[in-house]
Amino acid sequence: MSQQQNIYSLSICGRAILDMHSLNNEGGEGNQIATRMVNVVYRDRASGEYRLTTVNAISGDMFKHIQAEHLYLLAKGKLPLCKGCHKFSASRILDDQDFMAKLPPQDSAVIDALLKHCALDDLEGNLIAKGARSVPRKSVAEFGWVVGLPDYTTTESYFHVRYAAERGERAEEAQQQAIFHRPASSGVYAIVANFEMVRIGFNDISQQYPIADNERERRYLAFLESILYTFVEPNGAMRGTQSPHLVGFEGVVTVTNQVMPAPALSPLDENYRQEVDKVAEALNDLKPGAVTVHRFDSMGDFAKVMKGLIKSTRPFKLAW
Q: What separation in angstroms does the CA of 171 have from each of 162, 166, 174?
């Protein structure tokens, strides 16, 4: 363990080709399901000018939910979980009546108790709200919107009809065979995510670690594994019949081993990988060896990078 590298921060930025998916829908109007669309500003490659356009997107909430679900499955039976997280409640520790009934009077003591009581609330964050009191636990994971690249993303709507097992009167048959329109999107998507490994088990109020180092390392390893699985199996809406085709994944994983944020830039800029290299070079001039850049050109390469980090690193610990 002594030869393992300490990781202060980890960032992922990359482009994924996702075809025929419906991971994030906005709602329905009549029998028409609408997909999520957002506005982005980008630099036009031909003219070099800034342009505003509307593209298909998957919210960061969706990707964080995917990562949290993988973490929950990895943690169950192996890491401490509150009663809410034992059943993967969206309210997490707020759904643990015993914990909520015994909240300490000091906010820092509430966070200490949360960190000791539940790994999922530690890593994914929560807002302990009771009456007029609210105590935030900031998430270790940060996911940005996964947005389609202009000119490389499209959404179409497809006609479906529900199969009627029984034949009968025309009105009854029509009622059983409801028709609806469902969207499917295909394109190149820009992904940005950051993970503050130094904050695993860290109380932001008292600036102390109330849990033991070996417990931090256990949570760290499960956390890294859940990040890898998030991209191996991007769960979401309508996977039963529209499981996404993950055609390609390329990008950069950056890690820092000193007090320094891991650099990440939006893949909406086609030169994002070269710019990350330049930022890392500049940061390494300030603190030699602080930043490591891992490029990957496929899902297989990304999995190898993450496997290497799981086997050779541990979370950085602040000390005063």
A: 15, 12, 5
